[in-house]
Amino acid sequence: MKRARRHTAKWVVFLLPLIGLVAYGLTPADAQTAGADTDGLLITMEADSTPVITVLDILAERSGLNIVTSPEVQGIPISIRLSNTPFEEALNLVVRASGMGYERVGNSILVGGPSRLATQTGLTTKVFPLEYADAAEVENALTMITQDLRSFVAGNKLVVRAPQSVIEEVDRIVAALDEKPQQVMFEARLIEVNTDGLKELGIDWAEITKYSTIFAEGQPDESPTYGLPEDRGYTPFEQSNNWSRQLATFKVTLDFLITNGNGKLLANSKITTMEHQPAEIFIGTRTPVIISNLQSGATGGTFQSTQLEYIDTGVKLNITPRIASDGMITVLVAPEVSNIVGFRGPQELPVTSERTVTTLVRVRDGQTFYMGGLLAEFERETIQKVPLLGDIPLLGYFFRHYTIETQHTDLLIEITPTILEDAE
Residue 96: inside a domain, yes or no? Predict the structure, then answer.
């Protein structure tokens, strides 16, 4: 009887590995050790109420990694079905299904409860010196991704204290964020056009701008219709019977309007900025304004306080570039033109008139584009008087003639972005 019992026990021990392979859907080829490099390793297995430590043993054999488990992992059953799942994802699912966590240390994986992992693996501190990215912005990005770290900013260095696995992930994220940004130079002209004066010159402004408020010049080797709306019909120049105005001459027309007085150059500037960073051009006046307010005192009474504020009026242009991998430049443009039109209230606070627009344009390096449509209407009073007689108090009113003239203007913006290459 004793000999028979020993014989049966030998067969049970011998059959357990075979049962495990069948239960988890592993073929003999799957059971071969693939080494410590798990990139590209796919896992297919099926288990039903199986101890998680048994599943981890199979993953260890399949990947060639050492898997060490803490005591609380023993006896936890899981059910799982995986098909062609990457190893890291499969390991993560198995460990999470058991309510545990894991840390990878070199060629080994430690599986256990979160508190035990923090004790056994410990925390690592690393300093990340940043060359281009802002340390505070990188810190904010990291805290949004994971809470398993502590960090602070020192100068433009980021100090991180976290488990080794988190440090490795932070290292990859910081390397991706701390890239050298490209620079873009903008040549910008803001021109205010008197649309009423154009009619005297025989120029129909509505015809020039009726298709779009944005014009883009093409390159010499491009077709004449480059940058034009595709839903309209066009006739090639060589097949046309009449001369037609091309978009490439738009700049010449604007220069002509400035010369004859029907266009006013408000700004002609060059400014350089890094991609994703806004650049601002402001040409105008800061008007001081004194504002009085009644405030309650600590004893219940009221007192009058005054505060000095400033109102900016003039021309303001905000530009933010973004460079694509194909060299195209996406430009966010937000121009603003403002001026004081009067004063109101007992404090004579200024009333301003503003014209703003925001648009997103995609152009090539060195390609000029135009924006328009910031229309405005002004009333201008003109006084004509008889010399000497018109200056006589009271009686001079009868020798003066007042004319109120309404003017219509349109603000045009010409912008040329150029990508700057770093000097070697």
Answer: yes
